[in-house]
Specification:
Length: 211
């Protein structure tokens, strides 16, 4: 029998779309509290890897084990419900996992305040900038305290100050709650500052693991 200390495990995973090979024989293991970055050109396969980890896409070859009790996914586009306020968007996610309404609304407010959205709790998404919507989407995922957090370019629309703050929050979640985090970014500085190690998409199916 195997002891499971991993949150996510890829074993010899292969994935291609027609002739476009994104990964080939990719194996890695993500443990609780680890933060791992995904780097590579646009179209290299970062989103595909996150979708595979979440079980939204099936691998063509190999095996993927997701041992997380709760997996959170922050998509590249915020995907907020337009007819709900920022606070309601976060609270609904909490209510979906059984939190009582008054408590969910309170927690949602606190989470949004952490994201420096104090003045916008009751704003609808169409009144929020792209960066603000991205932060609501992050707040929604973080509020659920996932064991595995999958983030697709979570800071792409944020200014430098907020990028640094988000990076700190991600590290905090990993350190204090033991969450494992997989995030993609086009910023080498952000990858180096935030990640314990990095999966680098080099093209033609090659994915290197580096510090
Ligand atoms: N369902 C699909 N069918 C066919 N091709 C796909 C599908 N999903 C993704 N692709 C292709 O796979 C490649 C990798 O896409 P992916 O979204 O994983 O890249 P990415 O590294 O996240 O890019 P970006 O940095 O621009 O977000 C792209 O060339 C894309 O066109």
């Amino acid at each position: 029998m195997e002891t499971v200390s991993a949150v996510l495990r890829f074993r010899q995973v292969g994935m291609a779309y027609g002739k476009l090979v994104l990964m080939n024989g990719l194996s890695f293991c993500l443990k609780p509290g680890q933060v791992v970055g995904l780097s590579g050109k646009s179209g290299a396969g970062k989103t595909t890897l996150l979708r595979l980890a979440a079980g939204l896409t099936r691998p063509e070859e190999g095996r993927i084990n997701n041992f997380a009790g709760k997996t959170g996914f922050v998509f590249q586009e915020p995907r907020l419900l337009p007819w709900r306020t920022a606070r309601q968007n976060v609270a609904l996610a909490l209510m979906a996992v059984g939190t009582q309404k008054t408590r969910a609304l309170k927690q949602a407010g606190q989470m949004l305040e952490c994201m420096e959205l104090d003045g916008f709790l009751d704003a609808y998404p169409n009144r929020l900038s792209g960066g603000m919507q991205q932060r609501v989407s992050l707040a929604r995922a973080l509020a659920l305290e996932p064991d595995l957090l999958l983030l697709d370019e979570p800071t792409s629309a944020l200014d430098q100050g907020l990028k640094t703050r988000m990076s700190e929050m991600i590290r905090e979640l990993a350190r204090e709650k033991g969450a494992a985090v997989l995030f993609s970014s086009h910023s080498e500085q952000e990858l180096k500052n935030t990640a314990d190690w990095i999966l680098r998409f080099k093209g033609k199916g090659l994915v290197e693991i580096s510090d």
